[in-house]
């Protein structure tokens, strides 16, 4: 069974000031997402599911979905603030989305096979999709065995400033023991360092695995998340800023022994437009990959 690619794109409208500004970074206006879907299809993913918001549905179908329709089966699901479990009502003052794991829950009715989760606006690299697809194909029919692509932290930094990353710890067999969100990571004097809770800079090796929100799950993940989201809302419904993130759920399942999650090393360099100043560097990196033969000059003809 071919795995499904689940693309988190509900934040697009707000982040780009509308899809009209969805940034064309490739030589023929290709977006970062175009490269992800190209990589996923050639790695063996059989379907793409996008989670978006109703407010830009038509725009998204016209600008995005249309170009993939002849390439791979596509489905759309929606994430809205009011999509809550029975018994919960939305605080009218809440404007912040519920977070990445709430977005994942929106795929429950259309995804019945092993699936990958990625951000729409991150460049993950060809090798990462191949590694993930190969692992997910082996997960068909299994439960409680997940994975994530562990990027080497040195391959994910921005030259324009500090970044936030999920720094991951693994056991001797490469299974995740914990992922901790570090909000300030940068290279200082040639060394990768993060700022800990006390404000102290802590050095870590370049090859320390970090999560870039590229996960592999089987459908039982939806059931765990659904139950846990009820608990999350019970504890946080009045907190207008609280968000239900994937690492929150993953950490819980790992630490209570429900699941095992394999951290898969990748040689790929991650990149994205974290800062406006990153844009030119991303364009240059994509051009270099095209010149190296990784991608055709025009992805979708």
Write up what this structure looks like:
This protein is an alpha/beta fold and 301 residues long. The protein has a domain at 4-142 and 212-255 and 271-291: Alpha-Beta Complex (Spore Coat Polysaccharide Biosynthesis Protein SpsA, Chain A). Helices cover 29% and strands 26% of the residues. It is built from eight helices and 13 strands. The chain has helices at 12-15, 32-43, 57-68, 100-105, 126-138, 220-236, 246-255, 278-291, and strands at residues 4-8, 47-52, 74-78, 115-119, 122-123, 145-152, 163-170, 176-188, 191-195, 201-204, 209-217, 260-266, 271-272. The strands form two sheets. Strands 1, 2, 3, 4, 6, 7, 8, 9, 10, 11 and 12 form an eleven-stranded mixed β-sheet that branches. Strand 8 and strand 9 form a beta hairpin. The radius of gyration is 19 Å and the shape is globular.
Number of strands: 13
The secondary-structure class comes to alpha/beta
Residue runs with pLDDT of under 50 for 5 or more positions? none
How large, in whole angstroms, is the Cα Rg? 19 Å
- Principal-axis shape equals globular
The level-1 CATH class of the domain at 4-142 and 212-255 and 271-291: Alpha Beta
CATH architecture of the domain at 4-142 and 212-255 and 271-291: Alpha-Beta Complex
Summarize the biggest pleated sheet. 11 strands, mixed
CATH homologous superfamily name of the domain at 4-142 and 212-255 and 271-291? Spore Coat Polysaccharide Biosynthesis Protein SpsA, Chain A
| CATH fold name of the domain at 4-142 and 212-255 and 271-291 | Spore Coat Polysaccharide Biosynthesis Protein SpsA, Chain A
Give the N-to-C terminal Cα separation.
28 Å
Q: Beta fraction of the residues?
A: 25-35%
């Amino acid at each position: 069974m071919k795995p499904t690619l689940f693309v988190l794109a509900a934040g697009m409208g707000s982040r780009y000031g509308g899809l009209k500004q969805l940034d064309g970074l490739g030589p023929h206006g290709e977006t970062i997402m175009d490269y992800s879907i190209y990589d996923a299809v050639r790695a063996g993913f059989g379907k793409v599911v996008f989670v978006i918001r109703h407010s830009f549905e038509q725009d998204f179908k016209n600008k995005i979905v249309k170009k993939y329709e002849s390439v791979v089966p596509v489905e759309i699901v929606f994430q809205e603030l009011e999509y809550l479990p029975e018994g919960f009502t939305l605080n009218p003052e809440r404007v912040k989305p519920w977070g990445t794991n709430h977005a994942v829950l929106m795929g429950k009715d259309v995804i019945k096979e092993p699936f990958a989760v990625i951000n729409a606006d991150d460049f993950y690299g060809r090798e990462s999709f191949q590694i993930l697809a190969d692992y997910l194909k082996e997960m068909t029919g299994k439960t409680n065995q997940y994975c994530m692509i562990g990027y080497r932290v040195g391959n994910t930094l921005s030259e324009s400033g500090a970044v936030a990353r999920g720094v991951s710890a693994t056991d001797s067999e490469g299974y995740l023991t914990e992922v901790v969100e570090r909000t300030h990571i940068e290279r200082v004097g040639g060394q990768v360092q993060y700022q800990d809770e006390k404000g102290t800079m802590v050095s870590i090796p370049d090859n320390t695995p970090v999560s870039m929100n590229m996960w592999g799950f089987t459908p039982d993940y939806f059931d765990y998340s659904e139950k846990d989201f009820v608990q999350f809302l019970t504890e946080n419904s009045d907190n207008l800023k609280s968000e239900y993130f994937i690492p929150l759920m993953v950490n819980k399942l790992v630490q209570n022994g429900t699941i095992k999650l394999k951290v898969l090393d990748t040689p790929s360099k991650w990149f994205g437009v974290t800062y406006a100043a990153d844009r030119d560097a991303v364009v240059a990196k994509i051009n270099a990959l095209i010149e190296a033969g990784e991608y055709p000059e025009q992805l979708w003809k």
